[in-house]
Amino acid sequence: MRNDQYSAGERADVQPGQAGVRAPAALPPSGKRIGERQLIWMMALLMALNALGIDAVLPALDNLAADLGATGNSRQFVVGAYLLAAGIGALVPGSLADRYGRRPVLFTSLGLYILFSLLCAVAWSFESLLTLRFLQGFGAAGIVALPPAIIRDRVGGDKMARMMSLIFVIFLMVPAIAPSIGQGVVMVMGDWRWIFVFTAVAGVLMGYWAWRNLPETLHPEDKQLIRPRVIVRNMRATLTMRQALGYTLGSAVIFGALFGFINSAQQLVGEAFGAGPWFPAIFAACAGAMAIASWTNSRIVERFGARRVSHTGLFLFLGVAALQLFFATQTEETLWTFVPLMAANMMLLGFIGANFGSIAMHPFQETAGAAASAQTFIRMVSAALIGAGIGYAYNGTAIPLATALFCGALICIGLVLYAERGKLFGPPVSED
């Protein structure tokens, strides 16, 4: 259904006074309302700045390692440091945003992302680059943590799953093309440092767009006090509520395996399969499959429910991961088996990620910021550590990655069973 007049909590398909529907929030400085379509694009591209900061540098890891004296698998820490810091940093913005509003915290995170992007461009050693990347990820954590809270300020349940799926469709366009962008920047400018300049410019453009058009979405009656007891109480709910904890940990495990692919992808494709020049295209094909699945999910999730769709996707993921493990253990695995199966599993993640996140966020309307921070922290830190471990275990074959994908799927199924008290494929959740 088209809903072009969506603004600060208004929805054309619901009537004022319905549960879960809020009165319009304040308009942005420009005085313009933001339509649902623009909101989706904006939230997706804000989150995509992180993907750009991670994936654009992948084709340049060899050059970067040679220039700064990094050896072996340690080059992967350029990615891992950012991911880990973004997860740790996610604890900060949510509670601040629940008190002071989404806009001030979001623009602070954007400013830190831009600043440390520029500092990374002048890094003088590998150790200094890792430090700056950690600080960049920590400072920019709000770019990842706040969009789900902004969406939750407006809608919940399967409608949130639909919107988050559409956000993931757009968001995934960036990692699909980011390695090509990074490769292109290096070819034109001749130095990997310009990749970080490019990400800083992208951050400036996104900041200007959001400043002009994004309204404050936190409702005055939902403001939370900045007191340790209040913050701990709000975040503790994520750790004590069975549904939130199970789905948050489940997505952490399954996406940890994906981070393992991102960490080792350049070496795996370039060294194990000898297809280095084709790396950007292969990465784009895998991410593109995930984007297509996210778009499909947005079309079916309100009909079938986030639980039914994501549980089905998870069991299919397990089956594909089993095939990956089988082929990886063969004497001579080829690119022709690895890429289609990896693309298939990334496609299935498109039916899992947004739905898991929406189910986990559903109970937290009044404390969406703190809940988003706590869940992002758990998800990102766990996934980053798992992904770093998988990447560092790279041994010239796809076996460590395939093993992680298969084991991750099994663990995720167990966590979902815990969250749902043993009952899978449930009906769509009711609105608040």
Describe this structure in words.
It is a single chain. The protein has 432 residues and is mostly helical. The protein has a single domain (36-419), classed as MFS general substrate transporter like domains (Growth Hormone, Chain: A, Up-down Bundle). Helix content is 72%, strand content 0%. It contains 18 helices and no strands. It has helices at residues 36-55, 61-68, 77-89, 93-100, 102-120, 126-139, 141-152, 157-171, 173-189, 193-213, 228-240, 242-272, 279-304, 306-328, 335-349, 353-361, 368-392, 399-419. Helix 1 (36-55) packs across helix 8 (157-171), helix 3 (77-89) runs antiparallel to helix 17 (368-392) and helix 14 runs antiparallel to helix 18 (399-419). The longest helix has 31 residues, at 242-272. Residues 1-31 have low confidence and may be disordered.
What is the CATH domain class? Mainly Alpha
Number of helices, where a helix is a run of at least 4 consecutive DSSP H or I residues: 18
Q: For this structure, what is the CATH homologous superfamily?
A: MFS general substrate transporter like domains
Number of strands: 0
Form type:
globular
Q: Helicity level, as a percent range? A: over 70%
Strand content: under 5%
| Alpha carbon gyration radius | 21 Å
Please provide the ordered H/E string of secondary-structure elements. HHHHHHHHHHHHHHHHHH
Regions with little confidence, pLDDT below 50 for 5+ residues: 1-31
Number of domains: 1
Kindly identify the CATH topology. Answer: Growth Hormone, Chain: A
